[in-house]
Amino acid sequence: MRGRPPAPAPSVISRAVAEPWARTSHPEVNYMDTTTATETWIRTQDYHMHSNWSDGEGDLYAVLARCRALGLKRFAIADHVEYGHHSDVSPRWSEYRKAVAEVQARAADQGIEMLLGIETGVDSDGNLLAPDEIVHEVDFVICSVHTVRGVPEGLEARDEAAYWQAAREQIEAAIRCEHVDIIGHIEAYLPSEVVRTRGETFDGRRAVEREIAAVHFPLDWYKKIAGLAREHGVAVEIHGMSATPRVEAIRLLRDAGAKVSIGSDGHRLSDIGRVDHAVHVAHALGLTTDDFFVPARREK
Predict the structure, then answer these.
(1) Mean pLDDT over residues 32-43, rounded?
(2) What's 78's domain CATH number?
(3) Angle 247-256/276-285 helices, nearest 10 degrees?
């Protein structure tokens, strides 16, 4: 894992305002009226967002402008680099990398540090679905399961338990992968026909995913994930857009010494910086900056 965790001393600063959907989805979180320095620190960064080079809404300059307006001090673009993904930027990597460098220079002029990550996947054997030269160039790698690979077509409908076992094994393989730094949206944006057919709205799909996670991503499995993540130096993302993983799962990660990371996964400009779940979980569990993985610029 490549990173550096700054560590400000906790103190009470200001009032935390919870998103209504977060309050509804997570009644177990105690949304207090005070915010510690750690929680304020969380709101100055976001390490998972997308530009219109892949499937995001805004161009790189618009993303920077949004981050500056939010008061972010550090952020990262993590566009898709994944074989077979509809928004894979790797065929245009040279052009893309040049565009990112120009915006990074603009960000530095504004006192903002902009990092470059990628979001990719692994195959059923745990091999990254991204070119090696790109993996070695970027500052960090997010690995997310967008497709359960190596399973027969229609397995979810025929044998739900076997399908989600394969999904869990793919996540475990990603953690063991040498170049992975972060596991993205572990309980969200699940590759599921059930989610797509039952969830008619964004919030509806997230509700179906919570049902699936409760059954097929049990807390006993998270104990295994926590141990693997600690052993391999891989963080689990606190995913802003879906307000996942569950607080109990994050507690298990923390107690095992595994790291978590901060990421909105904003595709729309208005969703960049949506890290409320990380803020409120930090409050509920008393997380400090030492509990977070903070990506660092790769030495070129």
Answers:
(1) 80
(2) 3.20.20.140
(3) 60
Q: Which two tokens stand for residue 81?
A: 């680099």
What does the mean pLDDT of the chain come to? 90
Q: Worst-scoring range by mean pLDDT, 14-23, 54-63, 75-84, 141-150?
A: 14-23
Angstrom distance (rounded) from CA 132 to CA 26? 39
Range of the domain at 142: 12-291
- Exposed, middle or buried, 71 (CB in 10 Å: 0-12/13-18/19+)? exposed
Q: Of how many residues is the chain composed?
A: 300
What is the arithmetic mean of pLDDT over 274-284?
A: 96
**In-domain check, residue 5:** no
For residue 104, CA distances in Å to 74, 82, 266 come to 11, 23, 19
Domain membership flag for residue 151: yes
Q: Is the pLDDT score of 5 beyond 60?
A: no
Burial 77-110 (b: 16+ CB within 10 A, else e): bbbbbbeebebbbbeebeebeebbeebbebbeee
Q: Which of 115, 92, 91 lies closest to 103 in space, CA to CA?
A: 115
What one-character DSSP code corresponds to residue 298?
P
In a domain, 168, yes or no: yes
Rounded to 5 degrees, what angle do the CA atoms 24, 275, 239 make? 80
Helix (H) or strand (E) holding 40: helix 37-42
pTM given for the model: 0.89
CA 135 to CA 158: how far, in whole Å? Answer: 36
Number of domains in the chain: 1
300 found inside a domain = no
The confidence score (pLDDT) of residue 7 equals 42
Is the pLDDT reported for residue 12 higher than 50? no
